[in-house]
Write a structure and sequence with these properties.
Elements lengths: L2 H23 L4 H12 L9 H6 L1 H17 L3 H7 L2 H27 L5 H13 L5 H10 L5 H31 L8 H32 L3 H21 L4 H15 L3 H9 L3 H14 L5 H29 L4 H6 L9 H13 L2 H32 L8
Helix pairs in contact: 1-2, 1-14, 2-14, 2-18, 4-11, 4-12, 4-14, 6-7, 6-9, 6-15, 7-9, 7-18, 8-9, 8-18, 9-10, 9-17, 10-11, 10-12, 11-12, 15-18, 17-18
Length: about 400
């Protein structure tokens, strides 16, 4: 391995540390500083880190998301759901569903006003709006951690972002199946099987996470030393990510299930999380700085008005859906008022789904959807953490700014 890779990683971490400090000075979340620092480093602006090198570091993203998903999963304790019932589940369903429906209606109206609404454009609207359900948990978790947020809103937020990906995958699978059925895609896969595929992906992912979660629980009884337990935990997270990708599941969902199984079955959850807390900071810094470096400012000029429609109305749908879900389930008023604003970030899962979109639509429309999602990611990832912080602060769940 070339030592140049180590040099680039040193630059990445140093940039994260510097811009994290600058963000704190302006009372912004650290993650916003990491992303801005990465944006400056990347090919889009200064080009200090070449585009090819950024792609070489993709393993860092997988590892970081694995740790984040595991951390979220350990918070998903059955005792919590016994206390609050199905409220987070229903809110997750409603916020994802309304994000899709509101975006779909807005995009369809946009094409109708332009006088371009035909079956091709309707299929485009179906696929684009299906991606609106996805939410990125990483930035949200980092904000919660940095400010040590605690309270009903924070509890519900962590549960909803954990459940969100499952709902998003299902909705995307259904809408893409409908889009396929409306067009001549050349696929011989029956409609019912296309709709069933996302459910299979979720079951496979949860099954993999459950198996490794059980192994981690048993292993922590055998290995009692701190060093052994932290090594075992990292082993299980890595193995879960590999198995999920190998069997075409979702690494995020599998790692969350790994954490959920461990969190519910083991009494060593807090100890292990505490140990991992000292390992993960440089990984998270690298992840967000590299995520910023991947952002391309030029996509903003390529998306046009349809991109603005997507970016705005996805957020409108998320806010309304979270409010509606909270009202229906009679959740605390603070949840109804602020939860939707903390669901703005969108990144990895959405980008992955946009790649599927290129296989469903013609190459031109597929490329347009990808550009819209990349532009949305740039906007959401930069402003999302700030909005999340404001929502948590207004809810009274951030007392001391870190």
């Amino acid at each position: 391995m070339s030592t140049l890779v180590l040099f680039y990683l040193a630059i990445v971490i140093a940039t994260g540390l510097l811009f994290g400090k600058i963000a704190k000075y302006f009372k912004l979340p650290n993650v916003t500083g990491y992303l801005v620092g990465g944006l400056l480093l990347g090919p889009s602006i200064l080009g200090i880190i070449p585009e090819g090198t950024i792609h070489d570091f993709s393993i860092i993203s997988s590892v970081a998301l694995g740790f984040i998903a595991f951390s979220i999963g350990t918070e998903m304790k059955l005792v919590y759901f016994r206390r609050v019932g199905a409220t987070p589940i229903w809110i997750a369903v409603f916020e994802a569903f309304f994000a899709v429906i509101v975006t779909l209606i807005a995009v369809v109206i946009f094409f109708a006003v332009k006088g371009q609404l035909d079956m091709i454009d309707f299929r485009f609207a179906l696929v684009l709006s299906a991606i609106a359900a996805a939410t990125a948990p990483a930035a949200t978790i980092m904000v919660v951690r940095q400010y040590k947020a605690k309270g009903k809103l924070t509890e519900t937020l962590l549960s909803v972002v954990a459940l969100d990906d499952s709902v998003a995958i299902i909705l995307f699978g259904i809408f893409v199946a409908i889009a396929n059925a409306l067009g001549d895609t050349g696929t011989a896969t029956p409609l019912w099987l296309q709709i069933l595929e996302p459910f299979i992906e979720i079951v496979v992912s949860l099954g993999i996470g459950a198996v490794f979660g059980l192994l981690l629980t048993l292993g922590c009884k055998w290995f009692t030393g701190r060093g052994n337990r932290i090594s075992l935990s990292i082993t299980m997270i890595f193995a879960t990510i590999f198995a999920a990708e190998y069997f075409h599941g979702s690494a995020l969902l599998a790692a969350m299930m790994l954490g959920a199984m461990f969190g519910n079955l083991s009494s060593k959850t807090e100890e292990v999380n505490g140990l991992l807390y000292f390992v993960t900071p440089p990984i998270f810094v690298m992840f967000f700085v590299l995520s910023g470096a991947e952002l391309n400012v030029s996509v903003l000029t390529a998306v046009g008005l349809i991109g603005i429609v997507y970016v705005v109305f996805r957020v409108v749908g998320k806010i309304f859906g979270a409010w509606f879900g909270a009202k229906v389930t009679k959740a605390d008023p603070v949840i109804a008022k602020y939860l939707g604003y903390a669901l703005v970030p969108q990144a990895g899962v959405a980008i992955g789904l946009s790649l599927v979109a290129t296989q469903v639509l013609n190459p031109v429309m597929g490329a347009e959807i990808r550009a819209i999602i990349l532009a949305g990611t740039l906007i959401y990832e930069l402003i999302g953490p700030v909005i999340t912080k404001i929502a948590l602060k207004k809810a009274g769940e951030i007392s001391i700014e870190a």
